[in-house]
Backbone:
């Protein structure tokens, strides 16, 4: 398998909301250096759902974190829209992440002293932005949280907490929603519900989603799957099925 997904040429972003160009990420120096990403290039179209898969240690989470500005790159560039985030100061990068990106992680990261509604509205309040009332209602109803808004995280199931985290990430209408192993702590039913809503967010609202997962079933919700091995994109599937994803993973791990 060879790397198949290329970024558009410099100056030709087109309708790609996020682009990686020759991204290298190394940790440490000298003989102790470990290279997690080896010149990865990829483009992520607006309003599409991309899953990222690969064996343990393949660099998939590192790639996601570099794309989201949560980790720095050693070389190469990452664009969100027409902004190269690798050139931004820490302050400007923090503002861009707050204003333009959404994040959902396996650990949920909800504040235990706040209600579900307060957790959902938190990011908007930190950015001094009032959420659109109709959009808030649409998200809450689509995720089945209307009857849980006054509950604190400790009073919610794992699936409900994850749905709160998804609602919080989507409330500010981010240009890209980044998700790292977002269903890893959920039972199969709850995970399917969250993935189903994420699929609807792409189809109905034009949301862009980039998700790291190790679950072929989760990846099959995506429009395409990028497979990483040894810090490089080695294969791509479009309109994937579970069986196709499993077959590629078996070849990579065999």
Residues:
């Amino acid at each position: 398998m060879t790397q198949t997904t290329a970024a558009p040429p410099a100056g030709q972003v087109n309708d790609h909301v996020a682009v990686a160009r020759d991204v290298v990420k190394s940790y440490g120096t000298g003989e102790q250096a470990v290279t997690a990403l080896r010149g990865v290039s990829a483009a992520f179209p607006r309003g599409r759902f991309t899953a990222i898969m690969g064996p343990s240690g393949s660099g998939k989470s590192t790639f996601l974190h570099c794309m989201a500005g949560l980790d720095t790159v050693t070389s190469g560039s990452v664009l969100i829209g027409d902004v190269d985030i690798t050139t931004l100061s820490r302050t400007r990068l923090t503002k861009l992440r707050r204003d333009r990106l959404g994040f959902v992680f396996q650990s949920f990261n909800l504040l235990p002293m706040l209600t579900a509604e307060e957790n959902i509205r938190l990011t908007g309040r930190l950015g001094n932005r009032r959420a659109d009332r109709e959009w808030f209602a649409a998200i809450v109803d689509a995720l089945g949280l209307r009857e849980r808004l006054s509950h604190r995280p400790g009073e919610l199931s794992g699936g409900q907490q994850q749905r709160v985290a998804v609602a919080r990430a989507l409330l500010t209408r981010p240009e890209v929603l980044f998700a790292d192993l977002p269903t890893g702590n959920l039972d199969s039913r709850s995970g399917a519900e969250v993935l189903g809503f994420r699929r609807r967010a792409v189809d109905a609202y034009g949301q862009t989603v980039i998700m790291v997962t190790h679950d072929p079933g989760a990846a099959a919700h995506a429009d395409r799957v990028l497979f990483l091995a040894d810090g490089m994109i080695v294969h791509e599937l479009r309109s994937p099925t579970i069986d196709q994803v499993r077959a590629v993973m078996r070849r990579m791990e065999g």
User: Anything to note?
Assistant: Residues 9-13 have pLDDT under 50 and may be disordered. Residues 190 and 250 are 26 Å apart (CA to CA). Residues 46-69+87-253 form a domain with the Rossmann fold fold (CATH 3.40.50.300). The radius of gyration is 18 Å.
